Structure to design on (472 residues):
């Protein structure tokens, strides 16, 4: 059955996401801060708070003193490796205060709870990885060593409770902690221009907006700010049925040579040599060791392009790497997970991919859309190669995925689909001299496919080279 004749049995996007066209300023704080709208896209509907309620002053005091270089330029607790003792001596267990964070109508204030989650996750990662930071800073050739494997009750319990309420794992994540809920505006009247973005929390030097740490995070925010148009386009494709860009600014905003410094603090506690036995969250889950993935771009809703993966129905290989990709989904904010699942289900229901190759013109448009995904993932691979693989032998990314083979798994998937569509749909038309695949069409497609084949070969050789050098 052609998608145009499909009678949808599932709710429309508007029915499933009733706030998607709302003015963000009218959305109540009892809704998840990552409630998706056509005005804010995948960014939170309101810039994150920079301070917490008074009950959390002990937490804020530690975070203000935490960075290697504080806002005033003086050394912080991580500079002198004194964070651990300070946490153990100063921080009370404020878990009960989390449930007191409510809106005027008595509902839980998810906007404020997300800020509390962000701050506790920054403190947790800093506490657990402080010994690794010291090892790497004093003897980088010896690697990271071991992290602390017990998270104090005063950090573990409130962090765990926030995670329960927000339905995300109680560990630092890309959206809820490190990036998308960790920025403010220097001048609210200037809006979301890059030069106006500032971090709320940082590990190393990120409170200085000119630092590589700030550049690394703020470039992601600068990219995600463009997603409102993306959301609107997908609404058209899904509910009206007819259907991106990579910012090269990262090279300028965050130096590859600086990345390893603050990277220490965003590792997780799954598949990492620093935490061979996981981490005990004191007072949580009967003190069983817990394992969580670290902050990763794979947690984002556009960097790994899950939105386009779902809409275009790009098939991922049945590999352990794909299983990790699926596991990363749980680290996205609940509204993002729900929206992406909706897109995936609607695309399958409408058979978008099959419809797109029913005629030559649409097949070419579909192939060109896939090519944007390929280009994006290729550049992401180049970033990983230059920022990480060439600079450290550590075998895993911050999220715990294998550093050499992880991105090529997804990149190869889109390349394989492009080659398959070309060979099954367009190559036969070219061989037959069909009018529908004329000279102008070939000028669009043939150079693109030549590049795909060349990059696929180059990628295979690079991955083999890096794996051989690392004994993988």
């Amino acid at each position: 059955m052609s998608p145009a004749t499909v009678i949808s049995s599932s709710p429309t996007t508007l029915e499933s996401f009733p706030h998607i066209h709302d003015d963000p300023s009218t959305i109540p704080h009892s809704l998840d801060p990552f409630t998706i709208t056509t005005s804010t896209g995948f960014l939170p509907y309101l810039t994150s708070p920079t301070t917490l309620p008074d009950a959390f002053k002990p937490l804020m005091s530690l975070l203000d003193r935490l960075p290697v270089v504080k806002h005033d330029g003086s050394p912080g607790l991580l500079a002198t490796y004194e964070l651990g003792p300070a946490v153990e001596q100063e921080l009370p267990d404020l878990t009960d205060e989390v449930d007191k964070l409510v809106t005027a109508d008595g509902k839980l204030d998810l906007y404020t709870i997300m800020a509390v989650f962000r701050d506790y996750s920054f403190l947790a990662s800093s506490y657990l990885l402080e010994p690794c930071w010291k090892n790497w800073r004093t003897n980088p050739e010896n690697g990271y060593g071991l992290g602390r494997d017990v998270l104090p009750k005063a950090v573990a319990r409130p962090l765990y409770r926030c995670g329960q309420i927000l339905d995300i794992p109680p560990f630092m994540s890309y959206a809820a902690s490190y990036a998308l809920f960790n920025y403010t505006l220097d001048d609210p009247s200037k809006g979301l221009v890059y030069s106006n973005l500032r971090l709320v929390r940082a590990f190393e030097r990120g409170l200085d907006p000119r630092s590589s740490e700030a550049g690394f995070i703020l470039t992601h925010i600068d990219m995600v700010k463009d997603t409102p148009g993306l959301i609107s386009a997908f609404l058209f494709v899904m509910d009206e049925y007819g259907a991106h860009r990579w910012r090269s600014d990262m090279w300028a905003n965050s130096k590859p040579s600086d990345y390893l410094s603050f990277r220490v603090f965003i590792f997780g506690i799954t598949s990492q040599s620093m935490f061979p036995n996981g981490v005990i969250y004191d007072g949580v889950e009967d003190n069983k060791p817990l394992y969580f993935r670290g902050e990763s771009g794979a947690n984002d809703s556009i960097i790994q392009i899950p939105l386009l993966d779902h809409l275009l129905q790009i098939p991922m290989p049945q590999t352990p790497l794909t299983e990790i990709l699926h596991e990363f989904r749980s680290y996205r904010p609940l509204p993002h997970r729900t929206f992406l699942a909706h897109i995936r289900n609607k695309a399958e229901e409408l058979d978008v991919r099959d419809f797109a190759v029913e005629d030559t013109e649409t097949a070419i448009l579909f192939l060109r859309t896939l090519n944007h995904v390929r280009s994006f993932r290729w550049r992401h691979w180049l970033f990983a190669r230059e920022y990480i693989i060439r600079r450290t032998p550590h075998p895993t990314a911050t999220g715990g995925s294998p550093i050499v083979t992880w991105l090529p798994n997804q990149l190869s998937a889109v390349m394989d689909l492009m080659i398959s569509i070309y060979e099954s749909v367009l190559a036969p038309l070219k061989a037959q001299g069909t009018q529908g695949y004329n000279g102008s069409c070939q000028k669009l497609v043939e150079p693109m496919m030549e590049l795909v084949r060349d990059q696929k070969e180059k990628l295979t050789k690079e991955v083999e080279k890096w794996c051989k050098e690392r004994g993988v």
Summary: The CA atoms of residues 367 and 391 lie 35 Å apart.
